[in-house]
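hey
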């Protein structure tokens, strides 16, 4: 058996992610300027960008 090299790049061009989030998932993003609650030494402020992907499957029937 010959091993295939894996694709280590994250890509949203494929449809595989839509199967997970069809009815039970979604995305959440948030931008905040209060990260570390301080100014940067070179000027400006620290900024955080939060990106979250979630899947919920509450209420599934068990057989």
């Amino acid at each position: 058996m010959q091993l295939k090299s894996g694709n280590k790049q994250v890509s949203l061009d494929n449809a595989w992610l839509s199967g997970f989030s069809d009815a039970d998932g979604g995305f959440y993003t948030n931008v905040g300027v209060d990260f570390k609650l301080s100014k940067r030494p070179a000027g400006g402020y620290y900024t955080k960008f939060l990106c979250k992907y979630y899947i919920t499957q509450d209420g599934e029937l068990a057989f």
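Residues 9 and 16 are 14 Å apart (CA to CA). The longest helix spans residues 16-20.
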